[in-house]
Amino acid sequence: IGGKPNINKNLLKVAIGTIKESRLMRFQPFNEYRKRFHLKPYTSFRELTDDENMVATLEELYGDIDALEFFPGLLVEKTYPGSIFGQSMIEMGAPFSLKGLLGNPICSPEYWKPSTFGGASGFQIVNTASLQKLVCLNVERCPYVAFQTPDLGEAEGSEEKTRPSTEL
Known about the structure:
Layout: H1 12-24, H2 30-36, H3 45-48, H4 52-62, H5 70-76, H6 87-102, H7 120-127, H8 131-136
Subcellular location: Endomembrane system
Protein name: Prostaglandin G/H synthase 1-like
GO molecular function, one term: heme binding
């Protein structure tokens, strides 16, 4: 998913629209977002990606790593070893994705029933879903997939360790 030019031709209009919209919204360059999330900014396109053709293209288009736009940066960033995403996608995107899932009303008891998911078959699919299935059904190879949360007693700086945080 990351580190390679991999946008399906049917989604190219969406990618172009995303870049145009980010320019209209005056998004900061990719490295500025990395700094905001306490990630080390890249010093060169070669550090960002191992693909020499991509390095040459980025140098021609942007000239300087600090001019690279956010969305293209996310797409061409080399992946973690054994991962399908680059560091920026994982560190910037994952926390917001998880908060979005947990804050969704579909997670409430009133919605958690077969009729919400199209009947018993749909409910069975949802109840047997896993992160590994989600990833492996959507990529060519099936990498190791894991997720863990710290024990309440391990939470650093936590004054109240008996109840989970209410922060979304």
